[in-house]
Amino acid sequence: xxxxxxxxxxxxxxxxxxxxxxxxxxxxxxxxxxxxxxxxxxxxxxxxxxxxxxxxxxxxxxxxxxxxxxxxxxxxxxxxxxxxxxxxxxxxxxxxxxxxxxxxxxxxxxxxxxxxxxxxxxxxxxxxxxxxxxxxxxxxxxxxxxxxxxxxxxxxxxxxxxxxxxxxxxxxxxxxxxxxxxxxxxxxxxxxxxxxxxxxxxxxxxxxxxxxxxxxxxxxxxxxxxxxxxxxxxxxxxxxxxxxxxxxxxxxxxxxxxxxxxxxxxxxxxxxxxxxxxxxxxxxxxxxxxxxxxxxxxxxxxxxxxxxxxxxxxxxxxxxxxxxxxxxxxxxxxxxxxxxxxxxxxxxxxxxxxxxxxxxxxxxxxxxxxxxxxxxxxxxxxxxxxxxxxxxxxxxxxxxxxxxxxxxxxxxxxxxxxxxxxxxxxxxxxxxxxxxxxxxxxxxxxxxxxxxxxxxxxxxxxxxxxxxxxxxxxxxxxxxxxxxxxxxxxxxxxxxxxxxxxxxxxxxxxxxxxxxxxxxxxxxxxxxxxxxxxxxxxxxxxxxxxxxxxxxxxxxxxxxxxxxxxxxxxxxxxxxxxxxxxxxxxxxxxxxxxxxxxxxxxxxxxxxxxxxxxxxxxxxxxxxxxxxxxxxxxxxxxxxxxxxxxxxxxxxxxxxxxxxxxxxxxxxxxxxxxxxxxxxxxxxxxxxxxxxxxxxxxxxxxxxxxxxxxxxxxxxxxxxxxxxxxxxxxxxxxxxxxxxxxxxxxxxxxxxxxxxxxxxxxxxxxxxxxxxxxxxxxxxxxxxxxxxxxxxxxxxxxxxxxxxxxxxxxxxxxxxxxxxxxxxxxxxxxxxxxxxxxxxxxxxxxxxxxxxxxxxxxxxxxxxxxxxxxxxxxxxxxxxxxxxxxxxx
Length: 889
Fold this sequence. Notes:
The protein is an alpha+beta fold. The protein folds into five domains: 4-178, ATP-grasp fold, A domain (Dna Ligase, domain 1), CATH 3.30.1490.20; 184-307, D-amino Acid Aminotransferase, Chain A, domain 1; 330-492 and 622-711, no CATH class; 506-559 and 569-606, no CATH class; 734-859, Glucose Oxidase, domain 1, CATH 3.50.30. Helices cover 44% and strands 15% of the residues. The chain contains 27 helices and 27 strands. Strands 20-27-26-22-23-24-25-21 form an eight-stranded mixed sheet, covered by helices on one side. Helix 11 (346-368) packs across helix 14 (444-487), helix 14 (444-487) runs antiparallel to helix 21 and helix 17 packs across helix 18 (548-564). The longest helix has 44 residues, at 444-487. It is globular.
């Protein structure tokens, strides 16, 4: 049997024989690219070795997939020990002949080449081992067996499990390649991995062999070259302290000579020459490539190439100029804007600004009885795509003058009753009327009229909700102040004990999902399928199954979506709600089905019992005067605090129907060749939505690129910087967006301290990444995120204050929360170890060892909390100002 293939005998069709790496090197050799000569010990050799030594059964028993990454460690050690025996005489003879053809004891690089690596859908980069500067036949044979054994490292087995690859189907070839004793080496991407631009080649370069670059043990020069003209767009020269070089035994790291450390490895002409090789390779494969290169004696060599498997979509540069169109106005990101953490889609921006403006004007008229806010005084424009409330100086002045009357209205209960008895029923009625419409019989103009009507109804409803928030916030703040200042003794429980255990819409949604999970667990085959089958496939099967159990599950799940499927992850209607995309809910159900989640009924029962016992104890202990004040304040807070969550949970009530209407419009525009996909309708402006336009596909793509770039920016909470509105900055619930260092400061939202890995989630599409015990890090959390709190050990957000949804729910779950950091999602990486201090309001970034330095921030005072809770609308800002003045007087 032939076990050896030279590079020029292989190509991309030989992956089953040569593995991904070997097949690619053969393809590059046949394409006349500068590849060092070599050969591949094909997969048949691995299979023959396994068969000769009867390893199949032993490996199958040990390589059982597990959800615990550490579970592979012992199996890996035991499997790799099975590869200690010598190879057969026939294979030894073939390897000896092929190796001698390269030269007498020539140094070679020996690399593993698995049949499931270097593929477009999964690179498997770094999962198996490489051995450099291998010399002599005996050393080569040892390296070959070590490569085979590296197919079963813990990291390789865990990676294959994540990719759902059957271990029994994977085999390994071994690449033996003449060693390039490189003076410089590195990695080249033929598309920019940071911004997705396909016309930019990115080169990393260091002195010595490429091993240090691939392993990340050395800083590299980084060069960006524009193709096809070879222009160097940027070049950063690093301080390269160490380099990897050949040694008597394998390789060693040495210090870089002082005169080379800060010298560029490549000249601009070198970079252009190397980029031209990259362009040839990409053209040959027809897709962007990740390439390893080396240079020796002025000649470049290609030692590996694989497809780039995780290339981002193209994005524009992140904005840096935050100039506002009206410098005398104040632009603030608060209240409704907290549910808009990303740049807005063009259509949503067009529709939400006038709707919010009209609803705010209506609110002001109701508060103060006259038109003191004019069209030019308030709005919801965008700056670099981000939504901001805009208040004119004149409008703010008039509002503050009238604020005492409005303040009295807030706290007589008038507005709370109006929300319950009028605003909420009206919103539901409007949504119900439009839901009954036959969309296919409506014209595009009628559909868009309906969309505008629903957005207007949602804006009006949210404006009514803003009258609930100050009441709920103030009730909590005043009770906490009274309790901490007048009632509490040293060993008494914290104030939050008296405010937990109440029912609210997010908690009811969690209990509904838990009930369905409990029912699911009682049907073994269904529960096992939920855990094993991909969520989309599970949902499709449930929808069409004739099995009574599956049909019942589908009916119950649809009932849950009908009741709670409108809760928004992000208020911009281009983002799906659970009714559109229920996959994140299945991720939570998997967690509960596996038995890892706590019973929300039991959690609520314990909290309510503790709350009621503590309330009774203090009422019995206090003197009559303090008991009377305590009773009034605690009952007020307990009554109105859940109302805020109930009100916020229904803001997106119109979104499922609104999105159905826009999907119908999108399908029509796609049919008219105006856009490529129905969802592209969100990237159009309102004035562009008609079927008579030419194609807008190019404009849509440009807007998406602009949006992706904008999303990388950290929007200031208050603009213009240095303007008159800066007087409000210290009252807004967020930290500086310019934070650096190992400690991120925010607002203390829920007490406690925890050290755990971070999990940075951009939205529901990332919910499946959440692991029990992770710290949930997100721009915001809305009621639709509540199910994740059962898994989280703590919560950290960019946006939000001490009275936001994140804070309230974190306290219900008894986990620390730090909110309003402004920068958490940009400064923290998934998997990074962090310490969350919910008392000090800090997040410490820990790199392997805990940092002892913590810079605590002041907790929000009662006055700051009240002002933060009302900062969303100009009316509330004015009321808060009045309250501050009264306290100072």
